[in-house]
Design a protein that fits this description.
disordered C terminus; about 20% strand; 2 helices; disordered N terminus; eight-stranded parallel beta sheet; mainly beta; about 475 residues
Length: about 475
């Protein structure tokens, strides 16, 4: 299974620290969708037809797995584990998630003409998806995620006209997304993330008017985002991140007013953010980080009052941070680092009282650090390093009791290091290097209860002034400290 690559902490640690949680949540969402499509007319005591029994026996041999009730010459739906059938003795549902199945998916699966649900996720299944799966014309749910399937997605998948959920994520599938996928007009969830799929996103995807989840992240997809995505009016969650997509963000994407999540990060997208982004008022997540986007941040971004995550780091944005950002009162994560932003940190940032992570490092920001930032009780990351900030470090910094990362290095901060910095008992990373600070290192730092994870980079011109804070690692840099 493809593993995500490591990234530098300075740019993207915060998004990646959440990625594993998001990954599990997405897998769960697709799994829940499996149960949302329930086959009807189940008669669990019904004896299985001979053709169905043979299939179970073939599977059991191929999967090298003894499943309860699958043995014997006359198994029935009441005793066959994970099997449901209709009144005629035909299997309509196979649900064997987390059963550690081995072997491959047998081509004989095409004998299950009445099958509506095939859910065999979280297994050790290998081999390819048999083309015979396209014969299951009644299938509504196909879930074979978190396995070790290889090969390509068969074009015959387009025959499954009744399919509502297609969940093939977390395998080792290669090749293009077949254009025939556009024939699945009843599809509401398409989960193909964490594979090795390549080529463009087919324009036939514009036929999937009922789609609400389009999860293609962590693949090798290339080309531009097709403008036909605007046809997907019911779309709530498109995630195309971590691919090789190029071109601009289509302005028509702003017509998808039901969007709650838009993940386009870690691609090669260029151009500017469409001003119409402000029309997506239900967005809670906007991830555009690690692209090649240019221009200024549109002021209309302030319309996204439900936003909790705004990731624009590692792009080429210029201009100032719009004051309208103060309208995002629900924001938990604000990542604008590694851009070319100028001007001061807007006073309106004082409204973002729910912030947990504020990443503005590696820009060209000027002026003082707003006092209001030190009132954010939930703040865990405050990353303002490598800017042109001036003025003193406020003694109010000690109020950030939950802070575990503080980066103020490479600015033009002046004055003394406040004693209250020693109250940051949860700090794991603390960097004040390359400033114009003076005075002595506060003895209160020795009161920190937890050992700093990284080096405490305060510049020491006079080594003899070292105090003895056993938990701290002190490295020499370039700030003048008076004895």
């Amino acid at each position: 299974m493809m593993r995500r690559s490591s990234l530098t902490w300075a740019a993207t640690v915060a998004p990646l620290s959440l990625a594993r949680v998001r990954r599990c949540a997405l897998a769960l969402a697709c799994l829940l969708a499996v149960f949302a499509v329930t086959p009807v007319a189940m008669v669990n005591a019904q004896l299985l037809k001979a053709s169905q029994v043979r299939f179970l026996q073939d599977c059991q041999r191929g999967w090298k797995q003894t499943l309860p009730g699958w043995n014997g010459s006359k198994p029935n739906c009441g005793t066959a584990f994970g099997i449901e059938c209709d009144s005629s003795g035909m299997i309509v549902s196979i649900s064997l998630q987390t059963q550690s199945l081995n072997g491959s998916i047998p081509a004989a699966i095409s004998n299950l003409a009445n099958l509506r649900n095939l859910s065999i996720s979280t297994s050790n299944l290998t081999g390819s998806i048999p083309k015979e799966i396209g014969n299951l014309k009644n299938l509504q749910v196909l879930s074979i995620s978190t396995s070790m399937l290889t090969g390509s997605i068969p074009t015959e998948i387009g025959n499954l006209k009744n399919l509502q959920v297609l969940s093939l994520e977390e395998n080792q599938l290669r090749g293009p997304i077949p254009i025939e996928i556009g024939d699945l007009v009843k599809l509401n969830r398409l989960c193909l993330q964490y594979n090795r799929l390549s080529g463009p996103i087919p324009t036939s995807i514009g036929n999937l008017g009922k789609l609400n989840h389009l999860l293609l992240q962590y693949n090798l997809l290339a080309g531009s985002i097709p403008t036909v995505i605007s046809n997907l009016r019911e779309l709530k969650r498109p995630d195309l991140s971590k691919n090789r997509l190029t071109g601009s963000i289509p302005t028509v994407i702003c017509n998808l007013t039901n969007l709650q999540y838009l993940g386009l990060g870690e691609n090669k997208l260029s151009g500017s953010i469409p001003a119409g982004i402000g029309d997506l008022i239900f967005l809670t997540y906007l991830g555009l980080q690690q692209n090649q986007l240019t221009g200024s941040m549109p002021s209309t971004i302030g319309n996204l009052e439900n936003l909790k995550y705004l990731g624009l780091s590692v792009n080429q944005f210029t201009g100032s941070i719009p004051a309208t950002i103060g309208s995002l009162g629900n924001l938990l994560y604000l990542g604008l680092s590694v851009n070319q932003l100028t001007g001061s940190i807007p006073a309106a940032i004082s409204n973002l009282k729910e912030l947990s992570k504020l990443l503005l490092h590696q820009n060209e920001l000027e002026g003082d650090i707003p006092e209001s930032i030190f009132t954010f009780e939930s703040l865990r990351w405050l990353m303002l390093g490598t800017n042109k900030l001036t003025g003193p470090i406020s003694s109010a910094i000690g109020k950030l009791s939950k802070l575990n990362r503080l980066d103020l290095q490479r600015n033009s901060l002046t004055g003394m290091i406040p004693d209250t910095i020693g109250k940051l008992s949860n700090a794991l990373y603390l960097s004040l290097a390359y400033n114009q600070l003076h005075g002595s290192i506060p003895t209160t730092l020795d009161q920190m209860k937890r050992k700093l994870y990284c080096t405490f980079l305060i510049i020491l011109l006079f080594p003899k002034i070292l105090f003895h804070p056993s938990p701290l690692l002190l490295h020499a840099c370039r700030t003048v400290l008076d004895a």
